[in-house]
Amino acid sequence: MIRSGGCLCVGVGYEVTGDPAQPVACHCSQCARTSGNYAVMAAWPASELVLTASESLAWFRSSDSASRGFCTRCGGNLFWREEPEGDKIYVAMGTLDQPTGLRLAGHIFVGSKADYYEIADGLPQKPGW
């Protein structure tokens, strides 16, 4: 299966093939600061990502172990990857074209979640990774 997606201004577009690991909601402070809230991501093998438009894609090294891919024009939060470059690419679910056919599997870094919302969907919650 091929899924496509991209940022708001279409300066970054992509396709991913195959089936990812089920998406998880990450409540860590880095995801909150890059997305404005928690981020829902699904992991694909990095080799399964093909950029169809990339003129405004940039990577920001957000920590010793992660880089985040975003659009320099619209600010869209698209990807993150482990550093040094890992074998997986984590795709922000909100950037995928609908329908995705995927379902949220759980929550991670719930120990860092903000105080203005509750997690009440009954899915598994982990304090860290």
UniProtKB/TrEMBL annotation:
MF GO annotations: carbon-sulfur lyase activity; metal ion binding
Cross-referenced Pfam families: GFA (PF04828)
Xref: InterPro entries: CENP-V/GFA, Mss4-like_sf
UniProt-listed PROSITE patterns: CENP_V_GFA
UniProt xrefs under SUPFAM superfamilies: Mss4-like
Superkingdom: Bacteria
Keyword Manganese: no
Parts of the chain that traverse the membrane: none
Keyword Metal-binding in record: yes
Keywords assigned by UniProt, alphabetized: Lyase, Metal-binding, Zinc
The CENP-V/GFA domain, residue ranges: 3-118
Record family assignment: Belongs to the Gfa family.
Record-given protein name: GFA family protein
